[in-house]
Design brief:
This protein is mostly helical and about 70 residues long. It has one domain. It is built from 3 helices and no strands. The protein starts with a helix and ends with a helix. InterPro entries: DUF378.
Length: about 70
């Protein structure tokens, strides 16, 4: 499960950085790399959204799981 936590965290951070670039510089990194609303861009945006939902729903569980793992 920790691998899934880290992978989804990566996508959430990627999404946050992309939104920061859009807000500050009007530059969409995902669209630049994969094409403006191409199939690949939409897949990446979907993965970021699903990762955000997962991170939000698992926040308390992850905290408990990681705290318990560090104690051992």
């Amino acid at each position: 499960m920790k691998s899934l936590d880290v992978i989804t965290l990566f996508f959430v951070v990627l999404g946050a950085l992309n939104w920061g670039l859009v807000g500050i510089f009007s530059f969409d990194l995902i669209a630049t790399i994969f094409g403006d609303m191409s199939v690949l861009s939409r897949i990446v945006y979907t993965l970021i959204g699903v990762a955000g939902i997962y991170q939000l729903s698992q926040f308390k569980i992850m905290h408990t799981r990681w705290t318990h793992a560090e104690a051992h």
